[in-house]
Amino acid sequence: MSVIFRTFKFNLHRKSVNTPYCKCFIFRNASGSPKKFITFDEVIAQRRAEARRSLVVQVNSESSFDELYGYCSKYSIVNDVHHYQNSNNEHYMLIEFGSEDSKREVLKACSAHQKSTDIMPVQSPFLWFRAASGTKEKFSNTKKSLAVKHGNSKVDEDMLFKELLNCESVSDQLLLLYNKTKLNDMDIRLRFMVARQLEAIFSSIYANVAIKPFGSSVNGFGKMGCDLDLVLTNTVAPEMMEASRRLVFQEKICEGGRSPWQRHMELVATLLELRAPGVARVTRILNARVPIVKYSHEMTDLDCDLCYNNTSGVYMSELLWLLGTLDYRVQPLTFAVRMWARACSLTSPHPGRWITNFPLTLMVLFFLQQKRHDGIILPSLNNLIKMAGKDDIRIAEENLNCTFLRDLNKLPEDSYGQSNDSLQTLLFQFFEFYAQFDFQDRAVSLNEGVAIRKPNSLPLYIVNPLEQVLNVSRNVSFEECERLKMEVRNAAWHLESLLDGKKTDDWGILGLLEKQTTRNLKKLLKVGNNHRLVSVKDLFVAETPEVNTKSDRISKTEQSIKDSLDSKTRNLKFKNTQVAKQVYRIRRNKLL
Ligand code: GTP
Ligand code: MG
């Protein structure tokens, strides 16, 4: 079966610089030649520096650009202005200044607080642009235009559906899906701005405070709209602890119960509520092993999880990022698997006894470590540890050793990216691999790169690569593990059925991305005796004139879907009211 799949070859075009976080950054070796890989630390440092020289300003609309640009560039150098709109239809411009000093100059010259007794003034990188009082200043027509308009708008699912339908191969579908749904530059900038906001607010209370994004916001597997995991650290710089320095700050000894940081996180939560503009719905989860404060950031539409000192989480993100950038197929494949798992409800936005995106990602990476007929795609973690040098030593909290090779340029070329298998082949092989995996006795270990004996009888065992005594899927129940086994078999079967060459309306990845409910409904609505499944789109019979071509029909139907969702009063005809209700429920639940 897999042999036939290997015939779907895909052109390998290896990338010279790892993306998507660093398109705009060019790194060079001492010799001056461009580096093939940049490090995670370099990317994060660039993004943090970018955030430090940026401001987010609420404006009236995108046409406020000329005035805002004219006003700010009077005081300082503006690199670029990026526009976005949040779900409350508020417009914002992210202004990146030439330097942090340029930003400071602007703030010194023209920032202001509101004149109200109800407000306790606070300074953060989030501001608003007040209408000019008196006569409006004329700004000469600048040649500059917005770097991006509506920078964070979500992908139109129906358009994406159509584009996926029209792809030539499943490999093309996977690349398209990845490129359309991954975090874009605007979204990444905003995540670092939200982190910067907290840093600015907390730095008056905690010395050397740093707030860093981790998890899918930076590990290369983040989808538009994914949550923002943040870690607060307050490590004191080594020079600030030198015994030769004689003026030592008077400080309070950390006091508290099980963890003094539980109390500090309580304070942090209160500060978020009282002092951080845009923050809403703060929830404290302080009794967990890693205390977390959850909140929503309304100006950026981000759901945030803030924890303290979880540096192993950051190193874990670094490890995932490194593996994801080693080969261009890793991220698209992982995206597809994560979306498939969401579509068949193996994962859920809520915590429970099911698998989550993080262990699922480890499963994909582990699969790519397996030896194939023409070499391996990803190296084992033990290989990366063996090659680590002095600069790679990292010790996280509780003395956890997180040392592994950081500079992938040092990795021998024949130790990764060796196979020519297409994404289509890999996706099929992924499902086939786990359909045959011995979950009963074996554990997934990225450290070894091969399955190892399970140390206990938990249904699913995925070794935590940085803390090998732990199982990152310990929460997964027997039933959920059984469902996982069943769904990988179903997916393999679906992809195998493509071999007959027919392109139905759920061909390739489409058949894997639709929710079970949608699939069941489609089965229910099989029409005539031609065994064609009715597309959800076909269920809408809008009052439109007869259309001739298939693409006309699709775009007209899409328009009717949009209209129907925009206006509840619109009179759409369904086959019956039960179908109408079902369709609305599906469209509401549809997740891409
Ligand atoms: P999504 O938020 O679902 O997009 O994926 P995510 O990778 O961000 O996962 P999540 O928000 O659940 O966790 C954030 C990060 O915390 C992960 O990327 C890991 O680095 C780390 N993490 C999550 N679960 C575990 C775990 O069980 N053990 C350890 N050591 N780290 C974990
Ligand atoms: Mg996350």
TrEMBL record:
Cofactors: Mn(2+); Mg(2+)
A Pfam family this chain is assigned to: MTPAP-like_central
PAP-associated domain mapped to chain residues: 423-455
Keywords carried by this UniProt record: Magnesium, Metal-binding, Transferase
Highest rank taxon of the organism: Eukaryota
Residue span(s) of domain Poly(A) RNA polymerase mitochondrial-like central palm: 171-320
GO molecular function, one term: poly(A) RNA polymerase activity
GO terms, biological process: RNA 3'-end processing
CDD domains: NT_PAP_TUTase (cd05402)
UniProt xrefs under InterPro entries: MTPAP-like_central, NT_sf, PAP_assoc
Coiled-coil regions listed: none
Name of the protein this chain belongs to: Poly(A) RNA polymerase, mitochondrial
Organism of provenance: Leptosia nina
